Amino acid sequence: MRLPPFGFGAAPIGNLFTAVGDEEARAAVDAAWEAGIRYYDTAPHYGLGLSERRLGEALRGRSGYVLSTKVGRRLVPGPLARDSEGFDVVAGLRRVWDFSRDGVLRSLEESLVRLGLDRVDLVLVHDPDEHMDQALREAYPALASLRDQGVVRAVGVGVNQWQAPLRFVRETDVDVVLLANRYTLLDRSGLPLLEACAERGVQVIAAGVFNSGLLATDTPSGTFDYAPAPQPLVERARALAAACARHGVSLPQAAMAFPLRHPAVTSVLVGARSAAEVRRNAELWRRPVPDTLWADLAEAAHAGTKIQPSP
Fold first, then answer.
1. Cys-Cys crosslink for 39: which of 7, 132, 141, 206, Cβ 3.0 to 4.6 Å?
2. Is 40 a catalytic site residue?
3. What is the pTM of this model?
């Protein structure tokens, strides 16, 4: 399975940070489809199942796309309450970490019900950082068995750090790694993982290319890795924006284009909560980035100097 180069991340339509209405969420997915986007990613974690339900409804009746979801957090009944993990939802559900064989199979079955589908293309072990032994011993073999049976087309791991997936790449036969926030214009710490993936032929999905918001506009501010951005990082992002502007390039445009320069990266995944965001991202995605920009950034990094803002 070869992943499309540009994908729609469905965490925002699961009410990440702020609530999104049903119609607005549907319009975002419709805009992605109209823009030619054919890869969609979701997870039970995103809005306690809300993202899966909305995405499944929006894609119903459509074909020719790649869909991924995740396992590792099961949703079980709990008291009706507002979610405390970054999603603006109220539900009678709570998350339970579960990387056991039975937990993984039940989680996937429940995801299919929410999606309204009988299968998905790609299943990712989600954030196994503190559960690596069980994830390697039980979760991965369970998914590999489904792959061998043809129930899913590919399996992998999705994380916000590079050490855990490096173990998967070295110790298993995963097809895909989804790496969020660790190979961007501001944070390239995931490079050792990408090098290992290139050696083993593992496809990498680069997610979080805006580092949760700091690189999303030409006037950087806001969040970095889902928390308020420290001022030194804001200044670095503004310097990057100025360097991009000198080459006629938007900062988010460069942020989306950068990961695909590495041979292991086959797809860039960008979240959006509205049709306007989708259309903007898709339009920027299509614009070419001149090689001179990368050369200037590489030269500055090689010289050990900071990129300076324009006067």
1. 7
2. no
3. 0.94
